[in-house]
Amino acid sequence: MAEAYIVAAARTAGGKRGGALKDWHPADLGAKVLDSLVERSGIDPAAVEDVIAGCVGQVGEQSFHIGRNMVMASGLPDSVPAVSIDRQCGSSQQSLHFAAQAVMSGTQDVVIACGVESMTRVPMGLPVILPMQAGIGIGPWPQSIKDRYGVSEFSQFTGAEMIARNYSMSREELDAFALESHRRGAAATERGDFRDEVVPLTVVDADGTERKHQFDEGVRFDASLEGLASLKTLKPDGVVTAGNASQICDGASGVMVVSERALRDHGLTPLARVDHLTVTAGDPVIMLMEPIPATRRALERSGRRIEDIDLYEVNEAFAPVPLAWLRELGGDPDRLNVNGGAIALGHPLGASGTKLMTTLLHALKKRGKRFGLQTMCEGGGIANVTIVEALN
């Protein structure tokens, strides 16, 4: 089978809800990443054959085909098509899978996989809330689904609490994990580890001062266990809080995936080779556990062991998710989310897949490591796993 290579990877620095990126239209956010990928690769923009854009809240400013609107707002020519996809939190990771599959099948040679989410301008859950407020329909789950699974709704918050309970995770353990995420994010920021992957954006502060936004706003450099312990749990008898869960975030990210022929014809330098792609689905009620069986399948089918993987990015949607993943897979905590995760850096839903991949690729390069694995839990009990081989 033909190989797929990643030749460029970039992301915006995360913006807090109502923060630095609040005035950026999501199409413009995504367009800046598209332009950066073209610039970083050095390829002719007209050579891009498709743009696959992940986005969860496809309503309001992210409606009417956000992928195509990103292309129209960018420097890419009108001849570049696009498609918008939704696999919940794994949307742009699935974009990467679709791009790699297109290249590996031989049907395309240059594809951009990307994602965007402005959680300030398109609040989480808005596609469900708007029609309900207008008195239209009963929501995304018909009674047949509710009856089948014995629930009135499907909640990731409930799933996170279920995992914590099943693994006897204490509030203190979750908060300690959250604190480490902030510490790693702060250390990576201070070292300048994100500098090469971030696309600086011009923002205007409240006093009218223009500046470059190039640091993730969510990182708490003064985070402490005492501060985390002071936060209320999301459920009265639970252990999950806003402090040990991912932060609401605005941002965009993307990678350029190409064939071996494109490497040769366009004189491109690969960052990594796509080694393996997996997607699985399981229990939609607890839903957040699926990265575990998905990773097991990916390792089995790739012929690799967890010991062969130098670094892994497991999305920190909620602290119980990566903690359970570590326990079940026998992973090394020192290889997990080495620059912090979504608890510190933010989780811009549809952008998080290629955001994590961008950070993983740059971390592998900086450390001179070879294999990286990325996975994340997704709504409905789905999980993607991507294994890459860095070509430093």
Distance between the termini: 23 Å
Q: Which sequence of SSEs, written as H and E, runs from N to C?
A: EEHEHEHEHHHHEEHEHEHEHHHEE
Low-confidence stretches: none
Shape: globular
Helix content: 25-40%
Largest sheet: 10 strands, mixed
DSSP summary: helix tally: 13
Mean pLDDT: 97
Structural class: alpha+beta
Radius of gyration: 20 Å
Into which percentage range does the β-strand content fall? 15-25%
Number of strands: 12
Family: Belongs to the thiolase-like superfamily. Thiolase family.
Keywords: Acyltransferase, Transferase
InterPro entries: Thiolase, Thiolase-like, Thiolase_C, Thiolase_CS, Thiolase_N
Organism: Sphingomonas arvum
Protein model, in words:
Helices cover 36% and strands 20% of the residues. The strands form two sheets. Strands 1, 2, 3, 4, 5, 8, 9, 10, 11 and 12 form a ten-stranded mixed β-sheet that branches. It has a two-stranded antiparallel ribbon with strand order 6-7. The chain starts with a strand and ends with a strand. By secondary structure, it is an alpha+beta fold. It contains 13 helices and twelve strands. InterPro entries: Thiolase (IPR002155), Thiolase-like (IPR016039), Thiolase_C (IPR020617), Thiolase_CS (IPR020613), Thiolase_N (IPR020616). This is Acetyl-CoA C-acetyltransferase. Keywords: Acyltransferase, Transferase.
